[in-house]
Design goal:
Blueprint: E1 3-15, E2 20-22, E3 25-27, E4 32-33, H1 41-54, H2 59-62, H3 75-88, E5 91-101, H4 111-122, E6 129-134, H5 140-143, E7 147-158
Helix pairs in contact: 1-3
């Protein structure tokens, strides 16, 4: 069997006047993530991990923030497009492991909903996706509640 692995990372600044989306789930909070799209750092990290596994560059190359058609787009649509690239290349997702780093809001109450949504978008069984939520212990931009970051690693396997 042929496996491929990729890693992804994203960080977005928290600002007032935007909704907060993580894993295509709207999280009630006083701020949202700044971005050309909806700013969903978790989905962006997953996209980069999948693109990395395919050796297809990064999310900015496929969906540039200079292209008006991606202005305000739901990141779930970008994830679906990346998933179709995985399929087109003859691979399927073996598993994905993610870490969301946010000082606030507390994400534990939303982890199962995020997992369900991403599994639905990627047609994954729930045992193929793991989600961890961490704080930054008050350190840096994340710890100062100025940003939210996400890391993802994805493993692909050649289809039979």
């Amino acid at each position: 069997m042929q496996y491929k692995v990729g890693i992804g990372y994203d960080i977005h600044r928290l600002i007032e006047g935007r909704k907060l989306f993580l894993g295509a789930v709207e999280i009630p909070y006083i701020k949202g993530l700044l971005g050309h799209s909806d700013g969903d750092a978790l989905i962006h990290a997953i996209c980069d991990a999948l693109l990395g596994a395919l050796a297809y560059g990064d999310i900015g190359e496929h969906f540039p923030d200079t292209d008006p058609k991606y202005q305000g787009i739901a990141s779930s649509l970008l994830l679906e497009k990346v998933s179709s690239l995985v399929d087109k290349e003859g691979y399927k997702i073996n598993n994905i492991d993610v870490v969301i780093v946010a000082q606030e809001p507390k994400l534990l109450p939303f982890k199962s909903q995020i997992k369900e949504k991403i599994c639905c978008l990627l047609n994954l069984k729930e045992d193929a996706l793991n989600i961890k939520a961490k704080t930054n212990e008050g350190l840096g931009a994340v710890g100062n509640k100025e940003a939210i970051a996400a890391y993802a690693i994805a493993s692909l396997i050649r289809k039979d």
